[in-house]
Structures are given as C-alpha cells and as structure tokens.
Amino acid sequence: MFKSISLRRRESLWGYFFISPWVIGFIIFTAGPMLASLVLSLTHYDIASSPIFVGFDNYVKLFTGDPKFWHALRVTMTYAFIAIPLNLIFGFLVAYLLNLRVPGVAFWRTIYYLPSVMPGVATALLWGLLFNPRIGVINWLLSLVGIKGPGWLASPQWALPALILMSLWGVGGGMIIYLAGLQGIPTSLYEAAQIDGANRWQQLTRITLPLMSPVIFYNLVTGIIGTFQYFTDAYVLTGGGPVDATLFYNLYLYKQAFTYRNMGYASALAWVLFVIVLVFTLLVFKSSDLWVYYEGEMRG
Fold first, then answer.
1. Which residue of 3, 136, 227, 261 is 20 to 30 Å from 183, comparing CA positions?
2. How many domains does the chain have?
3. Within a domain: 77
C-alpha cells in the first residue's frame, strides 16, 4: 500500500513538472495581465502618471455617458450577425463541393485554403486596391455590365458591407475543418440511404448536416469569438471611418488605449467585451442540445 501511494505521488510530481512550463506561461502572459487589466479598469490611468482609483466610474461612463461605445457595439453586432452566417454557409458549401471526386481536387483545396493563412495586413492592402472606386477591379467588373460601382470603403453606406464581403475571402479556414468532418462520415450511411431511395438532398439533410452539426457548432463558437475581436482590416483600411461607419469595438478600444491614452477606460471596455463574448458563447452552448447531434449519444 505504501509503495502504491509513493508511486502515485511520484507520478503526480512528474505530471506537475511536465505541465509547469504551460502553467507558468499562462500565469505570466494570460492570467497576470487579465488580473492587472481588471484592477486598471477601476482606475484613471494615462500611462504617464500613476493610476488613480475611481471605482466603477469607468463602467458608469461607458454605459451612460459614451454614445461611441454603443455605436461601436452596434457596428460589431451588425457585422457579426451578417458575416458569421455567411462564413458558415459558404465555408460548408465549398467544403461540400471539394469533398466530391473532381479532377484536381487537391489543387482547389489548396487554392481555397491559402487566403486564410495570408498575413492580415497584406490581405487588407490587397482588398483596399480591389475596392478602390477609381482603379479597383471590382468597380471595373461592375462597369462591364453597366453598373456604376459605389465608393466602397470611402462611403459610409458601403464601407461595412465591403468589409463583410471581404470576410468571405477567408472561408478556407472553416472549409478545412468542414472537410475533415465530411470525410469522417461513414460512406456506408450514404450507401444504405441510396438503397432506400434517398436522393442527394435527403442525404444532405438527413445524414450530412446532423453528423456535421458538431463541426458547425465549433465553427460558430470560434466565429463569434473571432468576430468580436475584429480589428486588423478596419484599422488598416478605414481607421474606423468614414464617419465612424466601421468603428468596431476592438478598434474603439485600441483608440482609447493608445490614441487617447485612457488605459483605465480601455481596460473597462475590454472586460465588457469579455462578458459579451462569454454571454453569447454560453447561449450557443445552451442551445446546442437542440440542434447538435453526437453520433452514439443517447438522449432522453
């Protein structure tokens, strides 16, 4: 008995030893900064001078005296409610097509995946040229069919739709995950369905989508988190303009922190963002029992 306990203890110590680099890194680079930002959110801190404790004043100002907070949140929500479904749908459709036996499928998979691994700034600059109202390719293509293209990024009405359209450029990241899920579905299920007379639409709705629901769920959660962290494209292309039409939440937070040097207020914005993302994520998890199917799961 003594030897057994001693061996278990040694194994535990070795386990703690091997995970210690991650634990130390998490404390220093994640948990520590989070705790510091929580403390700073209760202060007035402009970097140049010592923090001054102000309690919940930053949060009160944020909800009651800052219309730009609500505007930035509205812009981000609008982008999220349009871009996330579009990315989920197009990512799945591309994966579904690339899962078929077509010539050069490996080449097409690579082509569709490449944009998702390109540097964000380079991608933004590329799309800035495409959206240019005078020399851009998009307006040139529209002119070929007699349509006068809008100002896109220079227009308050079209700047946000342009960024939503641009988001579809990166559907390859989700496409790869969908493709892995599709290839994990047993072919015997489709063969049995064909024998029973099921057409392709019935196979899609009765076999593919239910078995792919865990993958859709995963992409939905990561899409929510990623959308509320949207920053690079808006920062590079519009800077939040024109007329704050693309003032995303993260961009507004960045401006408060590094343009206006309101570090305390920016920390409060960051914690409100954390709570918003947490609430949406929990809602999605709560709803998963209604639409996510796990093979072999027994439900009462």
1. 227
2. 1
3. yes
Q: Check residue 232 and give left, alpha or beta (phi > 0: left; psi -120 to 50: alpha).
A: alpha
Model confidence pLDDT, tens digit, residues 214-273: 999 999 999 999 999 999 999 999 999 999 999 999 999 999 999 999 999 999 999 999
Q: What is the band of 297 on the pLDDT scale with cuts at 50, 70, 90? A: low
Q: How far is CA 157 from CA 9, 83, 153, in A?
A: 64, 16, 9
Indicate if the alpha-carbon torsion angle 289, 293, 297, 300 is positive or negative.
positive
> 66: alpha, beta or left, given left = phi > 0 and alpha = psi -120 to 50?
beta
Closest CA to 220 of 132, 131, 283: 283
Q: Please, which residues have CB within 8 angstroms of residue 292's CB and are 6 or more apart in sequence?
A: 213, 214, 216, 217
Residue 296 gets the label, from left (phi > 0), alpha (psi -120 to 50) or beta, of left
Q: Please report whether residue 4 resides in a domain.
A: no
Question: Which residue intervals of 151-262 are DSSP H helices?
Answer: 159-167, 172-183, 187-195, 200-203, 209-228, 232-237, 249-254
d(Cα 166, Cα 170) in Å, to the nearest integer? Answer: 8
Strand partners of residue 263: none
* CATH number of the domain enclosing 257: 1.10.3720.10
Task: pLDDT band for 77, please (50, 70, 90 cuts).
Answer: very high
In a domain, 35, yes or no: no
pTM for the full model?
0.90
Judge whether 25 lies within some domain: no
pLDDT over threshold 90, residue 163: yes
Mark residue 197 as left, alpha or beta (left: phi above 0; alpha: psi -120 to 50; beta: remaining).
left
Residue listed under structure tokens 């197009």: 90
Given a contact cutoff of 8 angstroms between Cβ atoms, the answer to whether 59 and 267 are in contact is no
